[in-house]
Amino acid sequence: MIEILKEFGPSFLWSDGYRWSGLAVTLWLLVTSAVIGLLVAIPLALIRTYGNRWLALAIQLYTLVFRGTPLFVQLLIIYSGLASLSLIRESPSLWWFFRDGMHCVILALALNTCAYTIEILAGVLRTTPRGEIEAALALGMTRRQLFILVLIPSMLRRALPAYSNEVIFVLHATAIAFTATVPDILKIAADVNAATFKTFQAYGIAALLYMLLACALVAVFRLAERRLLAYQR
To answer: What's the mean per-residue pLDDT of the chain?
Structure first.
């Protein structure tokens, strides 16, 4: 394994001057998709809980579809299925987006994690203590101020434990990127295996990197929970 790292370390861990390393690509996929998914999930979770009935039903249908189908199938539909449509191929901007494997992987991951995050946040919103809302209304807050100053901060704090598991799931899910020829950790491991036929060492390094990243994420979220949820103790 040491010999593999000496020879292929630049591909796994840092840039070799021509492209990103597998670790950098995996982190980019994780951060970009998780941030997009969270930013979209926040307003959709509010609509799902407090909004118009028909909009809430549409959001529920979206979460049902993306939580009820495998992520790998979703990626295949986005990367291979949509790219085969004449509508996509005849539009320069759409074809530019969907012909790039990186774009398709980020879109698939973001849509998938957004669906799960909506359910996490909506569940937290339903358990918001009634006293918080009544206190805000007693202070004369408008509906907009109630959402921005009370409900959303409270929701994000209390959702941290469950959301940390979702982020780790997204990290593991980035491994499907190699099927779209995106040079993430697993794609680099597959290339190393093809070049050296040292299967255990190549995929063992990949597994170790994923585990270290997961441990780092757990540590970050545990620290955030201690600071932001200290009032619960």
So the answer is: 87
Token digits of residue 190: 């597959």
Per residue in 86-144, pLDDT (tens digit) is: 888 889 889 999 999 999 999 999 999 999 999 999 999 988 888 877 788 788 888 78
Contacts of 102 (CB under 8 A, 6+ apart): 29, 177, 180, 182
Q: Could you tell me the CATH superfamily of domain 2-232?
A: MetI-like (1.10.3720.10)
Q: Please, are residues 106 and 30 in contact by the beta-carbon 8 Å criterion?
A: no
The dihedrals phi and psi of 150, each to the nearest 5 degrees, come to -120, -65
If you compute the radius of gyration of the chain from its CA atoms, what whole number of angstroms results? 21
Closest CA to 209 of 23, 18, 79: 23
> How many CB atoms neighbour CB 137 within 10 A?
14
Residues 6 or more apart whose CB falls under 8 angstroms from that of 50 comprise: 125
Q: How many residues does the chain have?
A: 233
pTM, to two decimals: 0.89
CA gap 63, 198 in Å, rounded: 41
Q: Where are the domains of the chain?
A: 2-232
What are the backbone angles phi and psi of residue 90, rounded to the nearest 5°?
-85, -10
